[in-house]
Structures are given as structure tokens and as C-alpha cells.
């Protein structure tokens, strides 16, 4: 398999990972979990789901951390967005209301994706050749895809990468630049993400 996802007969994906790759992926997923934060308490069994929806008390302000701002962007983008004529105050109010009702659910999904990565890696034991084959079936390929995307967004925010300058930043760093390991992880995750998409 050579470090890329391959399709499994009958559906799903598989990849061979060595001990270092397992450790890096697990560490990144755990850091993502820490960044996203703890989950919401489970609702009581007799709780009214409709009442819970309208009583939602999610955050209304965008995150100050640039990585979290990439993971949980404003729904309306801000003043001057395409096709929007409202003033800045109206856009902020609409974004705050949207965030209030959606961010907690989005955080839960992102947390579940990262946890799925950690749990599936915890079950791996490299064999004598130093590699272990990870098989993803059912909902796991999509969970992994979500987590890989979130990891890349987080690293892009930490590296201050935008789509416009991605290639310049990534391919021109000298080897002694302290950001180089993070850039290499960003590129590697991109390769994993691309090959996983191809198997779906």
C-alpha cells in the first residue's frame, strides 16, 4: 500500500502505516481534540428534542484562535461578501444567530471524527516489517476524511497558509526553517486525504 489509501474489495479503504506514522497521526488527532474542547453534556433521556433545539445556547462570537476560526468560520463571511448588501452590524447579527444554533453540533461532529481516528489507531500494532494495515469500513472513511480535513485546516492556520500563497510557502522553505516539519505534515495529510477521497 505504500502510505496511501487503497480501496478494499466490498467497500472501504486500507492503508499501511509504520509506527512513526501512527504516532504522528494519533498525536495530531489528540491535539485537534484538545483544540476543539470538551463536548456538551448528554441531554436527559426524557428531554424534549425540539425544546433543546430552541434552547440551544451555543457561542455567538467567532473564535479568537485563527485555527478555530478556520474550523468554525462565520456563516455570512462578513461585510462585502458576494451578493450581500447588508451593513456590517446586520451581518454580525446573522452570523451570531447562525453560530448559536449550529456550532455546538459542528464541534460534536468534529470531535467524533477526531476520536474515530484516535480509536482506530489505538487498535493498530505494527508487524515484524514495521507496518500495520489499517482498514476503514462503514462510516470510518468519512470520519477520517473529516478529521484529515480539519487537521489540514488547523495546520494551514498555524502556518498562515492561504490558497493564494500555498505553493510559495510550502515549497520554498529552507530545511532549517522551524516550520518545515509542520509543512511536511501538512503535505503528507494532503496526500492521505486525496488518496482516501479516491477510494470513496
How would you briefly describe this protein structure?
The chain has 200 residues and is mainly alpha-helical. It is built from seven helices and three strands; from the N terminus they run E-E-H-H-H-H-E-H-H-H.
Walk me through this protein's architecture:
- The protein has 200 residues and is mainly α.
- The chain contains 7 helices and 3 strands; from the N terminus they run ββααααβααα.
- Strands 1-2-3 form a 3-stranded antiparallel sheet.
- α1 (19-36) packs antiparallel against α4 (88-122).
- It is globular.
- 18% of the residues are buried.
- The model has no long low-confidence stretch (mean pLDDT 80).
Report the order of strands and helices: EEHHHHEHHH
Q: How would you sum up the major sheet?
A: 3 strands, antiparallel
Count of beta strands: 3
**Rg calculated over all Cα atoms:** 19 Å
Mean pLDDT rating: 80
Poorly predicted sequence stretches spanning 5 or more consecutive residues: none
Taking strands numbered 1, 2, ... along the chain, how are they ordered across the largest sheet?
1-2-3
- Beta-strand content bin: 5-15%
End-to-end Cα distance, whole Å, is 16 Å
Which structural class matches the secondary elements? mainly alpha
Task: Work out the helicity level.
Answer: 55-70%
What best-fitting shape do the alpha-carbon axes yield?
globular
- The number of helical runs is 7
Amino acid at each position: 500500500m505504500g502510505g496511501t489509501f487503497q480501496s478494499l474489495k466490498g467497500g472501504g479503504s486500507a492503508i499501511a502505516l509504520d509506527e512513526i506514522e501512527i504516532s504522528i497521526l494519533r498525536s495530531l488527532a489528540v491535539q485537534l481534540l484538545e483544540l476543539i474542547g470538551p463536548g456538551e453534556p448528554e441531554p436527559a433521556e426524557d428531554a424534549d428534542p425540539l425544546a433543546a433545539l430552541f434552547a440551544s445556547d451555543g457561542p455567538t462570537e467567532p473564535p479568537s484562535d485563527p485555527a478555530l476560526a478556520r474550523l468554525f468560520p462565520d456563516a455570512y463571511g462578513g461585510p462585502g461578501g458576494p451578493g450581500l448588501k447588508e451593513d456590517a452590524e446586520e451581518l454580525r447579527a446573522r452570523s451570531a444567530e447562525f453560530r448559536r444554533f449550529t456550532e455546538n453540533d459542528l464541534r460534536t461532529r468534529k470531535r467524533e471524527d477526531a476520536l474515530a481516528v484516535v480509536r482506530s489507531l489505538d487498535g493498530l500494532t505494527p508487524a515484524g516489517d514495521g507496518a500495520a494495515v489499517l482498514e476503514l469500513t462503514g462510516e470510518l472513511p468519512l470520519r477520517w476524511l473529516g478529521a484529515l480535513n480539519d487537521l489540514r485546516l488547523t495546520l494551514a492556520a498555524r502556518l498562515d497558509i492561504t490558497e493564494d500563497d500555498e505553493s510559495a510557502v510550502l515549497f520554498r522553505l529552507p530545511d532549517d526553517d522551524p516550520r518545515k516539519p509542520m509543512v511536511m505534515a501538512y503535505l503528507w495529510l494532503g496526500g492521505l486525504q486525496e488518496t482516501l477521497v479516491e477510494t470513496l
